[in-house]
Amino acid sequence: MEKPLNYAPIEWRGNKVRLLDQTKLPGEEVYFETDDYREVAAAIRELKVRGAPAIGIAGAYGVAVGALKIDVTSPEEFRAKLGEVIDTIARTRPTARNLFGALEYLQKAAQSGRTVIQIKNNLVAAAMFIHEEEAEATRKLSEYGAELLKDGDTILTHCNTGPLATTGYGTALGVIIRAHRQGKKVKIIADETRPLLQGARLTAWEAQKAGIPVTLITDSMAGYLMSRGEINCVITGADRIAANGDTANKIGTYTLAVLAKENKVPFYIAAPTTTIDRGIATGAQIPIEQRSPAEVTHVQGVPTAPAGVAVYNPAFDVTPHRYIAAIITEKGIIRKPYTQGIKQALTVA
Amino acid sequence: MEKPLNYAPIEWRGNKVRLLDQTKLPGEEVYFETDDYREVAAAIRELKVRGAPAIGIAGAYGVAVGALKIDVTSPEEFRAKLGEVIDTIARTRPTARNLFGALEYLQKAAQSGRTVIQIKNNLVAAAMFIHEEEAEATRKLSEYGAELLKDGDTILTHCNTGPLATTGYGTALGVIIRAHRQGKKVKIIADETRPLLQGARLTAWEAQKAGIPVTLITDSMAGYLMSRGEINCVITGADRIAANGDTANKIGTYTLAVLAKENKVPFYIAAPTTTIDRGIATGAQIPIEQRSPAEVTHVQGVPTAPAGVAVYNPAFDVTPHRYIAAIITEKGIIRKPYTQGIKQALTVA
Question: How far is B91 from chain A (nearest CA, A)?
């Protein structure tokens, strides 16, 4: 597997999974290994591993380590206990489609196999397959996406969508990394992405690692830069894409899409097709995770607001498909009308 | 003078000025007195006192304390030394119009008076007059603005525009406080306003002091709330308004105006006419202050980004007049076309 960078956010190591604790970045690069699925669930909930594809991969390995520790000999008993493991992993974060797609895939893998040993082997193989497929998807989609970027472009991106979020090239950031490696002189404007600062902490760090010029701004500055003509395009990732192209992504994405429309700047989504949920018709049906008020009233543990203030903290928002110039996937670039384009992309082998 | 709240951000005390150190809020309510104009200049530069009208008032008192300490007997010598004091105060922050208007007023006040004592008395009286006028303007404009708010409205506001920013009622927040005191059940959505968190630290604190329900969000959440129909109108203050109505205000204001337009939510500016600069034709000519990168790479002193990352940190942006539904002033509510309305408002006694 081609490794674009010298860090591995998720690795399968024998009977354990090794995760890079993203909450400690950029200050410290700390890895931890575990064979306890509850620890994997906690790592997902606490955003030690985050990014829709990475949540899917880590969740799959979480099920794998959980499965390996189930100490029964009857396949029926095994499958019952496996259900508890899968439920625990499923209850971590509600929005990212990739997690639920991965868990469905593992459920199916657990159906074949006549012995517990065989089923365990199937599950580990399935988790590794999910990992490889997600990483490979970002390598392909980054190639398609790079065609949209021109030499000299300044690209605004939101949250973090690099190798940390996907284990491969990345989605939105992967497209930029690919263009950079093709020799195009591209520059990144990274917005910090409050409340959890994935842009400041992770995207700035990954851009530096990849050797791409990056300028950090607060979320409130993106509009001003667009109004001054200093942004050539906006690319973000996605946590779930509805059948009509409506896209849930990190809170603040909708705002960037509106600003891009107003300033005639193309706004792109980059995501593997595993992020698409054809089971839901429009963005209105995508569950939006509400997170702890402390994320808004504190920054890195330091209080920034008076005690007792009420808080609203949705982790995602929904960008209606009409704002999206194209959806960049590993099956190619999907354009309007999205219902048709998405259907086509998902039925191509 | 009617005091709407139990704190006084700026007070003249004999030969000294007392300031509430706003950088310590909401954690601590710390006041400090000084008779040194360089300390007043530093307080403005370091945002211990901020908000366009408050900068004007503090700057005026800074000149007053500086003048009182000039130890010469010839009016000519006095005026020369006063020039140095005024220059120091003028070099603190470039965007807020009120500061320069106040300094011009004091320059004029220093022209009359045959003795140094008389000139000093004139300057102290002029500074107190500026203070009273700015506070009185917010009392009047808040009454005009409150007419735009209905019972049950949820109002989004940005940065801080309450008594802390003006010493009176406040501008945008003053309008909301006035509506609340009229018995209208209004609610505030305060965005935190990175990088310096005036929304989280100061607006949330002032709303609590005024007894108005307030919900804190990050800057990136305002669009999502508007798209869900949860905001009835947006009101912000202003740092400088051009002759055509283009308005410079805290970075992020332009973004809120675009989001409001897209979601058919009225977007209002509230400011005393001292914020209007008829000397400049459009927003393109308003000088925009660039502040330290550390404000973006750190939050309350805690680093949030990798070392060495490039930063862009404009303190303000410009909202073109076409996005503004009305400008609320102490002379009444100005509507489009603004060039005419502004001219009219400034020529009315």
Answer: 24
Residues of B in contact with A194 (CB under 8 A): 192, 194, 218-220
Structure tokens at B245: 């109505």
Asked if B203 and B59 count as a contact pair (C-beta separation under 8 A), the reply is no
Whether the per-residue pLDDT at A1 is higher than 80: the answer is no
| Among B93, B116, B139, residue at a domain's last position | B139
Contact B221 A252 (CB under 8 A): yes
From A191, A239, A246, A317, active-site residue: A239
B239 catalytic? Reply is yes
Q: Convert the pLDDT of each residue in B289-326 to its tens digit.
A: 999 999 999 988 889 999 999 999 999 999 999 999 99
**pLDDT at residue number B72:** 97
State the Cα–Cα distance between residues B93 and B47, nearest whole angstrom: 10
Please check whether residues B130 and B145 belong to one and the same domain.
Answer: no
Q: Can you tell me the distance from the alpha carbon of A56 to that of A151, in angstroms, rounded to the nearest whole number?
A: 33
**Cβ distance of A305 and B214 shorter than 8 Å:** no
Q: Are A64 and A79 members of one domain? A: yes
Task: Note whether A186 and A323 are same-domain residues.
Answer: yes
Closest CA to A250 of B120, B164, B348, B224: B224
> Taking 90 as the threshold, does the pLDDT of residue A5 lie above it?
no
Q: How many residue pairs from chains A and B have C-beta atoms closer than 8 A?
A: 186
To the nearest whole angstrom, how far is the Cα of A112 from the nearest Cα of chain B? Answer: 44
pLDDT bin (cut points 50, 70, 90) of residue A349 is low
Q: Where are the alpha helices (DSSP H) in chain B?
A: 37-45, 52-68, 75-90, 97-109, 116-146, 163-166, 172-181, 198, 204-210, 222-227, 253-262, 294-297, 338-347
Shared-domain flag, residues A218 and A274: yes
The answer to whether residues A208 and A127 belong to one domain is no
What is the domain-level CATH number for residue A275?
3.40.50.10470
Predicted pLDDT at A39 = 98
User: One of B71, B219, B239, B246 is an active-site residue; which one?
Assistant: B239
pLDDT (tens digit, 9 = 90+) per residue, A137-173? 999 999 999 999 999 999 999 999 999 999 999 999 9
Which chain A residue's Cα is nearest to B318?
A: A224
Selection from A193, A265, A200 nearest residue A228 by Cα: A265
On whether any CB of chain B is under 8 Å from the CB of A100, the answer is: no
A23 interfaces chain B, CB cutoff of 8 Å: no
Shared domain check, A40 and A133: yes
Residue B219 to residue A194, Cβ atoms within 8 A: yes
> Residues A336, A139, A30, CA angle at the centre, nearest 5°?
120
Shortest CA distance from B306: residue in chain A: A26
Q: Which of A143, A135, A137, A60 is nearest to A100 (CA)?
A: A60
- Is residue B321 situated within a structural domain? yes
Structural domain range at position A229: 141-347
Q: Is residue B2 part of a domain?
A: no
Does A294 contact B at CB distance below 8 Å? no
* Count of structural domains within chain A: 2
Same domain membership, residue A250 and residue A328:
yes
Contact of B229 with chain A, judged by CB distance below 8 Å, is answered with no
Domain co-membership, A240 together with A268: yes
Is the ipTM above a cut-off of 0.85? yes
Please, which pLDDT band fits residue A206 given cuts at 50, 70 and 90?
Answer: very high
8 Å CB contact between A261 and B227: no
What is the tens place of the pLDDT at every residue in A81-91?
Answer: 999 999 999 99
